[in-house]
Amino acid sequence: MQSNSQHDHKTTPFWWEAAPVKPLPPKSLPTKIDVAIVGAGYAGLSAALQLVRAGRSVICLDKMNPGEGASSRNGGITSGNIRLDHATLVRRFGENRALAIEAEGKKAREFLYSFIESEGLACDFKRVGRFSGAVGKQDYEGLARTAEKLEKKLGIEAFAVPQAEQRNYLGTDFYRGGSVRMDIGGLHPAKFHAEILRVALEAGVQVHSGAAVRKVDRLNDGFNVLTDAGQVLARQVLVCTNGYTDASDPWLRRRMVPVRSRIIATEELSPNLMATLMPRLMMCSETRNLGFYYRPSPDGKRILLGGRDGSTSGDPIEPTLHLKRNLDELFPELQNVSVTHSWFGHVAMHRDMIPRIFERDGIVYATGFCGSGVVWAPWIGAQAAKKLLDAQMQARSAFDFRPPAAVPFYSGKPWFMPGVMAWYRHLDRKLMRRAGR
């Protein structure tokens, strides 16, 4: 790890090697449009595709290059996590919505897989399953119960893996067993975005890079959307900015907290070592509050590991070293292996902690994916498009209801994140002690 202490790694995403993000050729904005979408990531493009195929004229406006945010910076794991357990969902939203939210997770994943297949999206997708590692015996029992529930209630192939059988799935002794669910896979996130962009452009969606939206004014018959590239009159507006929401929408900014998630990629490993450490080439997660997610690269030659960054500005080296230390703890065989890439992206957290569709002053929002946007962003984007097409639709998404509440004393700078991270670290220390570790 000597080289990495000297920043001898790339700070751009590993994914950009095969699918670099780039600006689109500049073109003039139209004078009028049916729907203006703010953000050209997974959610914005997914919505745009649905709308343009329904006969609407659609423009996607992105302040960066399309996909330059979380859509090309994530781990590419099709987890579709709901961060709240069933009891918490019931307490916050009621029994009916809680059940509907859980059921919709299965629909969202199936939508994603069908979308990839039907559109012919070349994004290295493989449904390899996900192994979740238990830190202690109590966690293992919880994972086993969850796997049993998934199998019985939703028909998802899922099963517990006792510690004695763990190395058949993952080459580590760190966990005390775990569980597997086979409906989860991995894809190349930057290729996935590039392919959605290709299909959207071919369908007639107008996509503009470097067109930051500065203001949206309500008019009698629509909206005036002011951007760095000019202004456009839109009959409807959909906002899909998620963790990259800025001061142009202060109301939304008070509700979406950008949290850094960082990923490191190792140098290429030998086939024998990869076969030892990741014999099934599965996606991986664990039960710690500040747990890690990790996976093999699509070509099966590297290991990528990600987790919460903890920093709020600049690009400090410590978060990279922290991830590498934890990778080495999982796999001691990697202690002398170098990191070639370390990068971060913003996930959007909010007080409801579930993906959301909501409306304010006629503007529809599809946002708040809480770190699981590979599954949720295309699904929520598509559901938001249906809402725009039919405001009176009966079969609304379970995620379509009131806006999340504002975060107190927050206006864009997450000053409280060090305290939040310290609290979760405290919980993880308690978890490890309870597990006798």
Automatic annotation (TrEMBL):
Residues 34-385 form the FAD dependent oxidoreductase domain. Signal peptide: none annotated. Keywords: Oxidoreductase. InterPro entries: FAD-dep_OxRdtase, FAD/NAD-bd_sf. One of its GO terms (cellular component) is cytoplasm. Pfam families: DAO. One of its GO terms (molecular function) is oxidoreductase activity. This is Oxidoreductase. It comes from Limoniibacter endophyticus.
